[in-house]
Specification:
By secondary structure, the protein is an alpha+beta fold. It contains two helices and three strands. The chain has a three-stranded antiparallel beta sheet with strand order 1-2-3.
Length: 76
């Protein structure tokens, strides 16, 4: 078993049409480089770049995969 704090990968996001870096932390929290960058840039303009973390299929799929592999390795 590997003791880890976070894992990251680049995945293609169809919604925004580009590669994004997705981070999954051991505590279950997630971040997306594109969302973080574009949300900061959009502040005050009332627009969000995409559906956000809760509704993002790219993030949820990668997070599910990370924790499934962790369970298979006997980490949880």
């Amino acid at each position: 078993m590997v003791d880890w704090k976070l894992t990251a990968t680049k995945l293609y996001c169809e919604t925004v049409g580009q590669w994004v870096t997705v981070l999954v932390y051991k505590d279950g929290s997630v971040k997306c480089s594109y969302y973080e960058r574009k949300t900061a840039a959009a502040k005050g303009r009332g627009r969000t770049p995409c559906s956000g973390y809760d509704k993002c299929p790219v993030i949820s799929s990668y997070k599910k995969d990370v924790f499934q592999r962790e369970r298979q390795a006997g980490g949880f």
